[in-house]
Design a protein that fits this description.
Elements (H helix, E strand, L loop, with lengths): L8 E9 L2 E6 L3 E5 L14 E7 L2 E7 H4 L12 E5 L7 E5 L1 E9 L3 E2 L24 E6 L4 E5 L4 H13 L1
Parallel strand pairs: 2-11, 5-7
Antiparallel strand pairs: 1-2, 1-8, 3-6, 4-5, 6-7, 9-10, 10-11
């Protein structure tokens, strides 16, 4: 037998949006929270759902459905917030339809479609709004589903691009 080749294994926090399974690296997530008392932000782009105060910390709440080109989220008993660590971006989280599980994937299970998973943050976008494909780092093959792995750090940038389009 030849030497074993080690591949990097990553853990992903998963959640459901519009019937699809999405995930972000567990290392990017601060917490999952069910506090959904959102205060609207006047003149914000559609992808900004509002502000939420959790234990004295105010978080900008993004509607991931809108960021991914879907209809705005309808908040129900399964809705929750995925809050990100400060290293990912200044105090923000995303509203998701339903939380999933923590899954492990190794690099061999993730397809990037030939695109770099670490491209520049300021890569050009398509006219008419943020390029939603820039938000997806890759697709992970799970036994019963496909996992769309998101670039956590690009979520706030996508909102800034949406705001620029609204202001144009």
């Amino acid at each position: 037998m030849g030497p074993e080749i080690a591949t990097a294994v990553g853990q992903y926090a998963t959640f459901h949006i519009d019937g699809r399974l999405f995930g972000v690296p567990v290392t990017d997530v601060r917490e999952i929270n069910t506090t959904l008392r959102l205060t609207p932000v006047p003149h914000a782009p559609p992808s900004v759902r509002g502000l939420v105060n959790i234990r004295g910390q105010v978080y900008l709440t993004l509607d991931l459905r809108v960021l991914m080109g879907c209809a705005p989220a309808q908040i129900d008993s399964e809705s929750c917030l995925v809050l990100f660590k400060q290293e990912v971006g200044s105090a923000f989280g995303v509203l998701v339809d339903r939380i999933g599980d923590i899954v492990e994937l190794d690099e061999a299970q993730i397809s990037t479609g030939g695109r770099s998973t670490t491209g520049p943050e300021d890569a050009p976008t398509e006219a008419g709004g943020a390029d939603r494909h820039r938000l997806v780092r890759g697709v992970g093959a799970l036994p019963e589903d496909l996992l769309l792995i998101l670039h956590s750090q690009r979520l706030l940038a996508a909102v800034a691009e949406d705001q620029h389009e609204v202001g144009s």
